[in-house]
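Priority: low. Protein: DNA processing protein DprA. Input follows.
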Amino acid sequence: MDERSARTRGIALTDRQRIAWLRLIRSDNVGPVTFRELINHFGSAEAALDMVPELSRRGGASRSIRVASRAEAERELEIAERHGAAFVGIGEPDYPPLLRQIDGAPPLLAVKGNRTAAAAPGVGIVGARNASISGVKFAGLLAREIGRSGYCIVSGLARGIDTAAHRASLDTGTIAAMAGGLDKPYPPENIGLLAELTEGQGLAVSEMPFGWEPRARDFPRRNRLIAGMSLGLVVVEAAVRSGSLITARNAADFGRLVFAVPGSPLDPRCEGTNGLLKDGATIVTAPEDVLEGLRPLCEPDLFTPRPGAGEPAEDVPPTLRLPPSDGERERIAEALSQVPAEIDEIIRHTGIAAASVYLVLLELDLAGRLQRHADGRVSMSPD
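Result:
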């Protein structure tokens, strides 16, 4: 791969755009999908920010929506700078190229460390926090040999398998995806590892604000980052109900290769990995199994961001559209229920123009009345 070309393609946000993007993604009820829809509809983050309160009101919000202020965004940028970090937009050269290709990719990532790590093809290695000695050793062996073959090891900075994978790839390149802010690593015992990582060949990434203490519900988002940044995911020891299996499901949904290390049927830590093998994951008993599986996917341009791939339009005047009528809003809302539906189904069912349907869904979303699902479907939020 030509690393230099991978890092020189893409857009470059101006300071003004970066502040507007940060304000928009930090506003209430604005997630990655909503962010994209807003910019696609209104042409820029600044224009979208002006419309968010009105859209929320039209969607039936019970209270005024909070829009992040310019002062708040500038303060977060200053905090990032003090920590030696920065915010990278989805279309910019330093944004992880594989991550930008998934649905619902974070529009902005806080990053700290060696940004060239993101240019290399990623291989995720995840597993049990209470890993066995043999599991830790094998995870380290995999990370070391795969890293030496030109891949960047991606994991979640957790105890056990994650820690072993990061430590074994400190010299070759590793990325730590975090559930909290970059200044709130978890677990605390890995603060030293994070410092080694970011001061060397590694990179830490997070979509959460600085100062954000990770909660249980934040870790699935972290898992999506790991899967999204990885060409393939290796699971080493995982119980049936574990975050590692969530990461594996994410990887499969993103079209990534899923690898699993077999283990004893008597060890609960291996029940999940053995289940992955039953479901068709590639068996791994040596680093060569992973390298051989990935080799056909390593085309020269695979990791180079394609122009226009992933990033929403910015500062492009939107096509003139008439706002939906009250009758159209009512028909769209009536078509929705708590059962997830495809947006194309809603368009066909109502016979309303796609642009109007998408705008009404935005209104409902900003009002907190809509749920967006990982597969692109939508449903009404429970009362």
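Confidence is low (pLDDT under 50) at residues 1-8, 300-310, 315-320. The first strand starts at residue 85 and ends at 89.
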